[in-house]
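Hi everyone, sorry if this is the wrong subforum. Our group has a chain we'd like a structural model of before ordering constructs, and none of us has done structure prediction before. Sequence below.
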Amino acid sequence: MAEVMLPLWFSHEAKELYSNQSIQEAADQDMSPSVRLQEMIRVIRGARTQGEERGVIQRECAAIRAQFRQADNGTRSHNLAKLLYVHMLGYPAHFGQMECVRLIASPRYNEKRVGYLGAMMLLDENQDASLLITNSIKNDLSHSSQYVQSLALCTLACMGSAEMCRDLAPEIDRLLRASNSYIKKKAALCAVHIVRKVPELGELFTPAARALLSEKNHGVLHGAVVLITELCERNIDTLEQFRKVVPELVQIMKGLVMSGYSPEHNVAGISDPFLQVRILRLLRILGRNNDTASDSMNDLLAQVATNTDSSKTAGSAVLYETVLTVMDIKSESGLRVLAVNILGRFLLNNDRNIRYISMTSLQKIVQTDHNAVQRHRGTIVDCLKDQDASVKRRALELSLALVSAVNIRSLMKELLLFLSSCPPELRAHTASGIFNAAERYAPSQRWHIDTILHVLTTAGGDVRDETVPNLIQLITTATDLHCYTVHKLYRALVTDISVQSLVQVACWCIGEYGDLLLTGECEETEPVQVTEDDVLDALETVLQSHMSSPATRGFALTATMKLSTRITHNVDRIRSIVSIYGSCIDVELQQRAVEYNALFKKYDHMRAAVLERMPVIDKSSPGHTNGESAGGTIKEMEPTKLTNELVLPKEPANQVCDLLDLLGGPGEPLHPTPAPSNTVKGPVMSTSGGDLLDLLGGLEVTPAPPCVKVYEKNGVTLKLQTDKQTDTGMNITLTATNSTEADITSLTLQAAVPKSVQLQMKAPSGDVIPAHGLGLVTQTVLLNNPNKVSLKMRVRVCYTSQGTLCQDMVQIDSFPSPTW
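Answer:
Right subforum, don't worry. Here is the predicted structure as tokens:
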């Protein structure tokens, strides 16, 4: 197009409009039906707006459609190539599907190549047009040219449906036995796709896959190993059959490790690392839970671990796969230690990805090879200072897993130091891990209390809700440390009242042990003289602070009230403080204040007894935990034989008579009334005790709502409990517990029911399930079933266990029926 000179008096807008029109005309001229693919790409890239690009593509697609309707003019492959580029840009190109079918049937290689490429991009197994190319693929698989056969193999491996795989599987098996290595490696990968689509066809390829291991070509070997791996993963019988080829795989692997430099297969000094990784992965599958196969590969794994250079990424990949194989088979203890040492070397690598996968692997084996992992504790702790958030999280989880009774003091110092500077998203997880470790391995109660107080001071806003009652329970059991604890908490309260959990524990301790605080006789800390006014001033500051939550004010008000029996000179001030909150806007605080005022006025003689010091809280006491007795065990009741007469001790019989007297009955034993004829016959109760049992026979104990276990995996147990409210409504409670040694985090439950059922999910009680069954998470689901259809529910369980995201689906087809 010749350049046009515009007059100087043209405005800027007129020049731009004229320029756009010129470009549009040039595009119309360039986008003639005979335009080449390169020219179309140039024009599309030259578009300055999305609308301009869309217009160019619409005109070109219209021209392509028009040419598709015409007879074969030699430009079909060029038009389909342009249409594929349009498809890559995200525009619709489905009208080219039938053209792909025509080009695949063409005898010309250049058209067949574009047709197969279009089929792989525009067709999938759900399209009806894909069935039309089955016969063409079958014919091309028998073509004399290896390149045409290759096109058919690649297309079948990319988008072959189950029906196509069943029809063409014999042809693939024939090509696996061909003499051409180029065809055999592509046929092996095509067979992998067929096995994934139709697993029962795996037996067809087993003999050919076994024969491919004798090939020298690395491409064929790679395809054979991938095919054997797929076959072994999907069929136990095939796995047993291929365990016999372990020595042959070991010889192939040794040849790769010990071979000299080969330019064709060398990658960063490693001979064909891709094939080595595939063979090691197959050896891991074959050696799992099998002593014979594991013994055959122990020497090879040791050789690979010692002779592979880990300075390059290729060598690190081979070593990492070696470590996974060693840990998964029944390997020798020395070899496992060598594998852990390799992971320890990975921790020193500058590549953060390698450090990350190293700590991920160590996390999986820390329970079985704890001592071997402990040798790298210093390196793991240093990773807590890494700038990468993912590496830092992995290092934290691994450090918490390494805590033991031997290293609790030294490792806890590092964790507390990390807590003071860790990112906010890791603070809650760090605090929870420190609490669990301190509870399990605390060397003394004082150390335990100091550690928890340090965590509360540093990250008190990020701790779990149960931290406060757990710490209170710990303090009550440490009777020798009451004076030390109340002094330390008082100083923390005076210093900062922003940390609510710490303030709540401090208020509770001051209320319980305020007399020890006032005496000032504490051998554990420096003597500090605290007056009654000082203590009341601190509590009143908490009550009046805008930072205090309603729960914290409740703790402070109760502590103030309890001090009325522990001090002597400021009782009137306490009465005044309590009376102020009798008209508080917070209902809970107002109720407490009114009750305390009544205690001052009407029941002052009982105040000292009501506000006396709390007894020691025992975790195993009844009511503290569900299902635990005071002794920690529940003895089963011994079965007794029924006799014709119920014999009762003399004293209980007299007590029964006394009870009957209170009820207005006679003092002598009552005679039982005759039983109806349709009742079940049993022993006759002729004593007064039996009469009383007859009187109370109609009082049945209300059974607990039915509960069933619907999910149990990775230490996580999910139970379902139903409670029918109305004829059409039902309450369902989902309860999740954790029996592993680490907290389960990021727990989410999602439920789905039939369309005719209305579902409402309440907020869960939390998203962290404490380890060792120390807590649980509950979520209530409300169902309304107006049509009374058969109720089914599908629950998706998502959680994070030791850094690994787990997701499962649970199908619930039957619900436990309520008993009332």
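For your construct planning: The first strand starts at residue 266 and ends at 267. Residues 1-33, 621-701 have pLDDT under 50 and may be disordered.
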